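Submission sheet (multi-component)
Chains listed below:
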Amino acid sequence: MTAFFDMGGYGWFVWSAYGMTALVVVAELISLGNRRRRGIAEARRAEPDIPATTRSALDPAGSA
Amino acid sequence: MPSTWYRYASPATFYAFAGHWARLFALAAALLCIAGLYVGLLVAPTDAQQGEAYRIIFIHVPAAWMSMFIYLVMAFWSALALGFNTRLSAMMAQALTPTGALMTFIALWTGAFWGRPTWGTYWAWDARMTSELILLFLYFGVMALRNAIDDPRRADRACSVLTLVGAVNVPIIYFSVQWWNTLHQGSTISMTTAPKMAAIMLTGMLLMTLAAWAYTIAVTLVRVRAIIVERERGATWLSQLPELRRMRA
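Outcome: structure written.
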C-alpha cells in the first residue's frame, strides 16, 4: 500500500496530477448543481407575472 | 434536412431529451473512469524508461485531446448559431465552454507535473505548451465576453465570432510538435502507424479517453438544461415542468 502511494519515488508528481484533476472535476460538479438549483429557484420566483397571451414564438419570455 | 432535427432545435423539446441522455452518459462516465483508473494505476506495468511517473499519461492525454476537441465542437455550434440564428446552438456552445477550460487546465497542470520528472522543468515557453495556454485564455475570453454583455442574443453572436476566430489555434496546437522543434514529444498515438505503447497501457488510456468523452457529454447536457432554465424564464412550458411546480406547493 505504501509502495502504491510512493509510486517509485514519483508520488508527488503522480498524485499532484491525479489530485488536482479530482479536485477540479468535483468543483465543476458542485458549481453545476448550484447553478441549476439557483436557475430553478429564480425561474420559479420570476414566472407568474406574464399573461400567457402576450407570449409568442418570437418572444417566448413576453418581454417585448 | 429531416424535420426531426428542427424539432430538437426547440429548447422545450431538447430539455427533456438532454435530461434523459445526461443520466446515461453520467453513468457511463463513472463506470469507464473506474475501469480506466483500475487498469491505469493497478494493472498496467511500470514503464521501463519513466518508472511510475508515466502514469500521468492516463489523465494528461485524454484531457489534452478533449481540450482541443471541445473547442472544435464549440466552434461548430457557434457557426450554426451565426448561420441559422438558432438559440439552442448558441446555448450548446455556451454549455461547452467551462468544461473545455477545465480540460485545458487539467492538460496543462498534469503536463507540468509530468514534465518536471521527465524533462526537469514544470514549464517551458515551448510551442505546444504556449499554444495550449492560449487555448485556456480563449476559453476564459469567451466566458468573460459573455459575462460582459447583458443581452443574451448579442452575447451569442459576439461569443460565436470570437470562438470561430480562435479556432485557428487548434491546428496550431495539434501540429506544433511537427512544425517546431519543441520539448514536447510527438504524438504517441497515430492513425497511420502502429501504436508505440504496450497494449495494456493503450487500453487504460482509451478507457480514460472514453470516460472523458462521457463526462463531457453528461456535464454539457446538464449545463445546457441549466442555461435553458436561465434563458427561457417565463415561458409557459418551463413553468409547467415538474421541477418548477413541485417546489411552489
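Remark: Chain B has one domain: 21-246.
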